User: Fold Aldo/keto reductase from Ectobacillus antri.
Amino acid sequence: MTIHSLQDTTVLHNGVKMPWFGLGLFKVEEGAELVNAIKHAIKHGYRSIDTAAIYQNEQGVGQGIREVLEETGLSREELFITSKVWNADLGYESTLAAYEESLNKLGLEYLDLYLVHWPVAGKYKDAWRALETLYKEGRVKAIGVSNFQIHHLQDIMKDAEIKPMVNQVEYHPRLTQKELQTFCQEHGIQLEAWSPLMQGQLLDNETLQSIANKHNKSIAQIILRWDLQNGVVTIPKSTKEQRIVENASIFDFELSKDEMKQIDSLNENHRIGPDPDHFDF
Assistant:
């Protein structure tokens, strides 16, 4: 798979184009740092921004988007904005209300992608019906899920009118989720990585350092390139302009098949976030 730039997209099963690379904003608090991170990212070519209701930063995200559109002359349609419904709001009516609240905070008329954040048993199916309603009404461009295992996806697709377009999960060299990725590929569901850099825990790995040295790249750049070559959308988080630029400087080299296998072999099924099957919701 050849991806040449930050604007390159994967086509979701409903025909919507989603950038392969974006800016994640988990745990970035409201304020100037957040607004500036969004502005730096978009000015340096990013087109995808990922937030969530539980991050409590949607207002700042909206401010950053408005300011950068004004400063650059880009249009809203050129951006791809994702948010997620939190566990406390899962349910049909409550999810519809949560969507409105997210839009109001962001100051947007629509989202490009709206996700069910976690598969809370007994609740996520009603939430999914709400997302289907929003989608059928043309209020959101694409809908999907986050942190869903194979059995959750199978369960939701039994009754769904529309199957998820995206599944955003924890994904990095210590948690390669090969079975889940294969399942998603077979069903036309795009896999997306959160915490692709394992919150910095891989940045002293000898195998990755050796590969990085060969390509004159950082370990972070190697991991993010591995994501893309595996066909996984990736959204590394950073608020520093230099790091935002560095993370995205991965389109001028390619990992060999052997290097890809070496990185795959680091898998230990090790999570740094909650296990979706044993999460205290």
